[in-house]
Design brief:
The protein has 7 helices and 8 strands; from the N terminus they run αααβββαβαααββββ. Strand 6 and strand 7 form a beta hairpin. The longest helix is centred in the N-terminal third of the chain and has 25 residues. It is globular, with a radius of gyration of 17 Å. The two termini are 17 Å apart.
């Protein structure tokens, strides 16, 4: 099983996960619309979507939630078989402040350091956030992607005034001596009246392969 194929399966799972998010939001309304999705809901739903994709391709895998003596702010899941391990970190960004971003980055690094170098490892990170009026919130998209989208008008129409932060997530990894090459994406899975995209709610995803390409 090539790394390229596994990467394609994970990307496909993340794309299809948008529909899962929409269903989760409908089931847990108004909680999601007030606070975002609970980490367990977010992490388990994405993990199950990835396992379903792998199973469709004839790849068996087991799912487990990693246990820790520490009280982690977000759950970490592990999908594995004899050939590979996929790690999933789920985070609900109630706040986008600098302390929360720093802790999130550290969790990603800590997870990378737990990987078994004897087999291919993949890391999928997912987080959701409701934009608010704070400067930190307005920076979250630029922090994640390293740039602002070419077309910011849809955000403006929804009352979101995007800003670029001083440092992006890639720069934070580098500053901590742990540069990571990954694919970062953003989604807006929620729709109003079933058709109009709600830009105030954002789903962040990142994908990393190990060994790093």
């Amino acid at each position: 099983m090539g790394q390229l194929l596994v990467g394609d399966y994970i990307f496909s799972s993340i794309e299809r996960f948008q529909l899962d998010c929409l269903q989760l939001c409908e089931q847990h309304y108004p909680t999601v619309h007030n606070r975002g999705m609970r980490e367990n809901h977010l992490g388990k739903a994405l993990s199950r979507r990835i396992i379903a994709t792998l199973n469709d391709k004839g790849i068996p895998a087991l799912l487990e939630q990693c246990q820790s003596d520490e009280q982690l702010p977000q759950p970490i899941f592990r999908i594995h078989n004899n050939e590979l391990t996929i790690w999933i970190i789920a985070q609900r960004l109630l706040s986008a402040n600098l302390a929360r971003r720093k802790a999130f980055v550290q969790t990603i690094i800590d997870t990378c350091q737990k990987m078994d170098a004897q087999q291919p490892n993949y890391l999928v990170v997912v987080a959701d956030h409701w934009f608010d009026r704070s400067k930190a919130s307005k920076e979250i998209l630029g922090w994640w992607l390293g740039c602002l989208p070419d077309n910011i008008e849809p955000y403006n129409k929804d009352g979101v005034r995007l800003l670029m932060p001083e440092h992006g997530i890639q720069q934070q990894f580098e500053a901590l001596g742990y540069p990571l090459n990954g694919s970062y994406k953003t989604y807006h899975p929620l729709k109003k009246d079933g058709c109009r995209t709600i830009h105030k709610y954002i789903l962040l995803s990142a994908f990393f392969e190990f060994p790093q390409q």
